[in-house]
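Work Package 3 (structural annotation) set out to generate three-dimensional models for the target panel prioritized at the project kickoff. During this period the team completed the workflow that converts sequence records into discrete structure tokens, so that structures can be stored uniformly alongside our sequence database. As a representative example, we reproduce one entry of 490 residues exactly as it appears in the project archive.
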Amino acid sequence: MYMLSAVLLLYIFHSRFCSPGDSAGDTPPSDSDSSAFSFDLDKIRQRGRIIALTDNSTTGYFVYKGELMGYEYELLSSFARSQNLELDIVVARDMNTIFDQLNRGEADIIAANLTVTADRSRVVSFTEPMLFTRQVLVQRKPEKWKTLSYEQVEKKLVRNPVDLSGKFVCVRRGSSFYERLKNLSDEIGGRINIVEAPGNCETEQLISMVADGTIDFTVADENIALINQTYYPNIDVKTAISFPQRVAWAVRKNAVLLKAAINAWLAEKRASGEFAFIYDKYFRNPKAAEERIGSEYFSNTGGKISVYDDLIIKYSNKLGWDWRLLAAMIYQESHFNPEARSWAGAYGLMQIIPATSAFYGIDSMAATPGESIRAGTSLLIRMDNYWKDHIPDEKERIKFVLASYNVGLGHIIDARNLAIKYKRDPDKWEDNVEYFIEQKANPQYYNDAVVKFGYCRGYEPSNYVRQILDRYEHYKNVINEKPVEQLAKE
């Protein structure tokens, strides 16, 4: 194998992954937790939301065909539901700083396939293990490996860790792999040349660099390596360089209530079989993983949300919205199914009712995806034009527009009039107009003199707005604001 120099490797890392100001090194977190942010489960419950720091990877957290997915994401969602909490995801942009972020209070949990180590245990507290895995060497099979015999391939590969002496192995300094390679170098009595990748270079990126020949070796946890091997069949991940190690979530050392709640939830999920089901879904289904990773609708490799992205982008520009917001709304309406039909007779991608379709000159049952999106966004523009005269703040106005699309303009006007009557802010959605749209299921409020449109199942528009905006935040986490085609041209 051709070995690149350490200087050249660092240049490649910085040119491919680093923005100005990034560093390939790592500042180890302090051994003391005395200055750690103090915010345990009791305060998290008061806030109503739990914040998790995770990685945007092929198993951790991603979007596939518009759907939010990932091993860590599904487990975090399950835990949040068990505590009656909303879940906020923060994507780790620099894995070398995640423990500092946790201790500064930027997140409550780190869930990112973290190996438990003594150094890390000095600065954070780990939950009971989620799983056990080994560290393995990721190396490239020899050229034309498919034409070679098994014995010929094996002779070209590193099978004994002793043979890593003098080799260049690329890992992040802040990773557990870095410490393992340092210890292994001492154990074999020969120097392993560890090339430090920057903190914003994830393990899966390093695996892809092995596959494409940019680097010769990296190290990964076996569960992650095996999944990536389904997409990169020219890599080998059979050489273990560690004993089995624990993988767990991390919380602040002073978050004792949160840790206890996670451990209790984890024990319950293991007993129910839900934990095993989620694990198998992501780590023991290589065919599904290969299909996802190879899809243009997989956020990590393709960057598209749906087959209708071009139409969504076109009409979101007319509406003046981020295209990812309109995509989140269409997913909420129809899951991108152009033949979706509701109990009320709404049809198509944007669930247009027959009366609205007729107004825009289309047949809802025969409308093309383009006609459906055109009609839906035209209705959104009408509602936005109405609310511009009342709600000057654009972010707030979007909530009123979404709610009006879902339940009708009249019901939202009623809720706003109730907010005025009861001395709430009529220009704010959360805890103000939202509160009164929910109350319109209560006779005391839908019979009020200021209400013109009567009863309303108010939790439906309330949940509708919340779910779309939450999905939009997830889309922003992993889908670029610029369309894929535009990025390609740049």
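DSSP finds 22 helices and 13 strands in the chain.
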